[in-house]
């Protein structure tokens, strides 16, 4: 192309003026219609001289949901046991296979499975929806095993097989699950994979309607037994605007936690994930407050 043609093209091409480059955009410009300029969203922006949060966790991640950005992470691909965070994945399988009003009976297989005291009575029947509440709010292992047994009966497939198949479907390629409650520490995941799980779980409104409750009551289907369920999440009443969360703990996994809080003034929310923590509630609170206070959102 000679210099004359280059000058002519520069004079007539609007891309450098309005931030467009395609032939379609050029045609719109020449016909008198100017398309809006596409602007990259650079927010949130970390404030100057912001110190890195000090955590006891072996791995952690902080995620801005509105802008789809990871704001902070440590050891994000490190494989670690996740304890009862497994139950968030378990809940998606339950909702795929069972309806909320179906009764499920507590059997010897789902009675006092962790030897820490039974959550229900042997032979008691509860609705799937109430067992989900017990599993996700109180982190009941008995509820997780009762639901697993019901899913296996319906599908004819082992629950561990189904957990790992669902993890693969979600894209959790660095994760492995070995029981429905997360009791076995040979199971593992990463904070990156758990972020994928949280995003996927948002497809199930029932899960998030449950995990934002600090307490509730459930009854057996015949009305004989009533159980008051209190959340294992000790940040209820400490942090405002909790959207939902799930706790986890075993001696091998240490403290694990997923927690999302809303930022109403900024039209966003922050999600914290911590694994292998000596102080899971303090770490989660520190991480969420650090994100809230040390970024400009608009």
TrEMBL record:
Originating organism: Candidatus Yanofskybacteria bacterium RIFCSPHIGHO2_12_FULL_45_19b
Active site: 84 (acyl-ester intermediate), 87 (proton acceptor), 139
Peptidase S11 D-alanyl-D-alanine carboxypeptidase A N-terminal domain span: 50-277
Listed GO biological process terms: cell wall organization; peptidoglycan biosynthetic process; proteolysis; regulation of cell shape
Key words of the record: Cell shape, Cell wall biogenesis/degradation, Hydrolase, Peptidoglycan synthesis, Signal
PANTHER family attached to this UniProt entry: D-ALANYL-D-ALANINE CARBOXYPEPTIDASE, TRAFFICKING PROTEIN PARTICLE COMPLEX SUBUNIT 12
GO molecular-function terms, A-Z: serine-type D-Ala-D-Ala carboxypeptidase activity
InterPro entries in alphabetical order: Beta-lactam/transpept-like, Peptidase_S11, Peptidase_S11_N
Protein name: Peptidase S11 D-alanyl-D-alanine carboxypeptidase A N-terminal domain-containing protein
Pfam families reported for this sequence: Peptidase_S11
Protein family (similarity comment): Belongs to the peptidase S11 family.
Amino acids binding substrate: 246
Entry annotated with the keyword Signal: yes
Keyword hit for Transport: no
């Amino acid at each position: 192309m000679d210099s004359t043609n280059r000058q002519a093209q520069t004079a007539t091409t609007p891309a450098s003026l309005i931030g467009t480059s395609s032939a379609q955009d050029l045609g719109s410009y020449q016909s008198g219609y100017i398309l809006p300029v596409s602007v990259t969203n650079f927010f949130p922006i970390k404030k100057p001289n912001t110190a890195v949060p000090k955590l006891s966790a072996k791995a952690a991640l902080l995620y801005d949901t509105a802008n789809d950005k990871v704001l902070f992470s440590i050891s994000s691909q490190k494989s670690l046991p996740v304890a009862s965070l497994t139950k968030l994945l378990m809940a998606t399988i339950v909702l795929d296979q069972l309806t909320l009003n179906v009764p499920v009976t507590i059997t010897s297989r789902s009675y006092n499975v962790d030897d820490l005291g039974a959550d229900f009575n042997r032979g008691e029947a509860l609705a799937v929806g109430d067992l989900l509440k017990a599993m996700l709010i109180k982190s009941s292992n008995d509820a997780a095993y009762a639901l697993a047994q019901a899913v296996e009966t319906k599908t004819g497939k082992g629950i561990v097989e189904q957990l790992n198949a669902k993890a693969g479907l979600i894209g959790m390629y660095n994760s492995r699950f070995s029981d429905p409650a997360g009791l076995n520490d040979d199971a593992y995941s990463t904070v990156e994979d758990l972020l994928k799980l949280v995003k996927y779980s948002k497809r199930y409104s029932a899960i998030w309607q449950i995990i934002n409750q600090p307490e509730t009551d459930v009854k057996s289907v015949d009305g004989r037994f009533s159980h008051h369920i209190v959340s294992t999440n000790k940040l209820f009443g400490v942090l405002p605007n909790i959207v939902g969360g799930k706790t986890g703990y075993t001696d091998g996994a240490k403290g694990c936690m997923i927690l999302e809080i809303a930022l109403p003034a900024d039209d966003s929310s922050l999600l914290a994930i911590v694994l292998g923590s000596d102080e899971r509630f303090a770490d989660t609170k520190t991480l969420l407050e650090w994100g809230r206070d040390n970024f400009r959102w608009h």
